[in-house]
């Protein structure tokens, strides 16, 4: 048997790498544009196929994780996404860029349905472990902006892809050596941890669909747009790409810490009690950020990422709490397919809104979309009194 702490450690590392890899381009595109002779709005859509693959691939990779091996799929993730990052650093044409970014998205699609299901199978306390896992994911977001800014400024944008690609392959080799494939059929795992009346389950499904679409779209739009937004709006503070990366990283760290806090709250309170207050902060802060600059923009951005990243933990916990083990990988596959497909569309939407009204129009549009998260939280039904968790067999990994 694998040690749970070791497996969870590699799953957390993979979450870091997953988000880091997906957002290198968002930070590097600022300096890639002049090097490739293309405008920001023209270059950004080349990331769209990768983000679509990030979501659409989840259905297939989640199924393979159940039918083949979660461990083997995670090894494919490490090696595949590492090679894809290196390939981006070697491109010569925009079409090669689109193809290699697509490859990153395709291999990145492995992590969430496979890695999250693996985490839940080994987790001791679901909320705490999922919150900590969210911290790693968002530290990946933060580090992507920071490291890409620094490496891009001093070594060039190509090394911003090549260096993390080499490191990722190295971690994959260590993972292959230390984590063995195991057939866990016959071991025990708790079933769904929260209960609602059977006739109220449609409200859970509807709330999950609404909040996943709204938050995934907003979350991805903000993480993609934030480096460029800071480059435009923080000119009164700095114009250094490296320092802008440090500021963006600092903002993302607040979001990461929020995920851990929300995870701990979910172990003590119902989903609705946590989700409703959290849903109320996004829309007003996005609207305020539309006209903000310098320190006001930084403070508004901190609140936005705290609200959006906290909602992501709520979304994941909703699937983990309400779904029994035998359905969990498929449930996560559907959740991420819907979420990341919506997120993929947000890249083109950011470019389209930016062309028509800059960041004012973009942020106001996503403020309106964030209102849907409030509706979703209100739809959630009350939970029934806790019952003694049933024990079920865990499928093979």
UniProtKB/TrEMBL annotation:
Family matches, as Gene3D superfamilies: MFS general substrate transporter like domains (1.20.1250.20)
Positions of transmembrane segments: 20-40, 46-64, 76-95, 101-123, 135-155, 161-180, 201-222, 242-263, 270-289, 295-314, 334-354, 360-380
Ranges of residues in domain Major facilitator superfamily (MFS) profile: 7-385
PROSITE patterns: MFS
Main subcellular location: membrane
Keyword Transmembrane helix appears in the UniProt entry: yes
Membrane-protein topology: Multi-pass membrane protein
Protein's cellular compartments: Cell membrane
Keywords in alphabetical order: Cell membrane, Membrane, Transmembrane, Transmembrane helix, Transport
Protein name per the record: MFS transporter
Organism in which the protein naturally occurs: Bradyrhizobium aeschynomenes
């Amino acid at each position: 048997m694998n040690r749970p702490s070791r497996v969870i450690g590699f799953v957390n590392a993979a979450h870091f790498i997953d988000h880091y890899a997906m957002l290198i381009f968002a930070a590097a595109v600022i300096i890639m544009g002049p090097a490739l002779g293309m405008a920001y709005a023209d270059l950004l859509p080349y990331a769209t196929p990768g983000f679509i693959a990030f979501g659409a691939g989840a259905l297939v990779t989640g199924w393979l994780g159940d039918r083949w091996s979660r461990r083997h799929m995670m090894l494919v993730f490490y090696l595949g996404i590492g090679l894809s990052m290196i390939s981006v650093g070697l491109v010569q044409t925009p079409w090669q860029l689109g193809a290699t970014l697509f490859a990153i998205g395709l291999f990145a699609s492995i992590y969430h349905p496979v890695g999250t299901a693996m985490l839940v199978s080994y987790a001791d306390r679901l909320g705490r472990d999922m919150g900590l896992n969210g911290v790693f994911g968002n530290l990946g977001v933060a580090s992507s902006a920071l490291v890409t800014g620094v490496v891009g400024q001093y070594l060039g944008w190509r090394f911003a892809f090549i260096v993390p690609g080499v490191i990722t392959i190295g971690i994959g080799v260590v993972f292959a050596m230390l984590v063995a494939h195991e057939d866990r059929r016959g071991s025990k795992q708790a079933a769904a941890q929260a209960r609602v009346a059977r006739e109220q389950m449609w409200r859970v499904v509807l709330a999950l669909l609404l909040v996943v679409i709204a938050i995934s779209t907003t979350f991805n739009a903000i993480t993609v747009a934030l480096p460029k937004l800071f480059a435009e709006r923080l000119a009164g503070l700095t114009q250094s790409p490296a320092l802008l990366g440090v500021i963006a990283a600092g903002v993302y760290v607040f979001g990461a810490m929020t995920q851990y806090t929300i995870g701990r709250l979910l172990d003590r309170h119902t989903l609705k009690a946590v989700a409703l207050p959290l849903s109320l902060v996004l829309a007003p802060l996005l609207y305020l950020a539309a006209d903000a600059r310098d320190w006001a923009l930084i403070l508004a951005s901190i609140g936005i990422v705290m609200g959006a990243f906290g909602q992501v933990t709520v979304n994941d916990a909703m699937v983990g709490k309400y779904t029994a083990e035998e359905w969990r990988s498929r449930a996560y596959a559907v959740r991420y397919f819907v979420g990341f497909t919506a997120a993929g569309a947000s890249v083109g939407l950011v470019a389209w809104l930016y062309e028509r009204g800059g960041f004012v129009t973009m942020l106001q549009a996503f403020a309106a979309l964030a209102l849907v998260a409030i509706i979703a939280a209100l739809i959630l039904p009350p939970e029934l009194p806790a019952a003694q968790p049933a024990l079920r067999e865990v499928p093979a990994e």
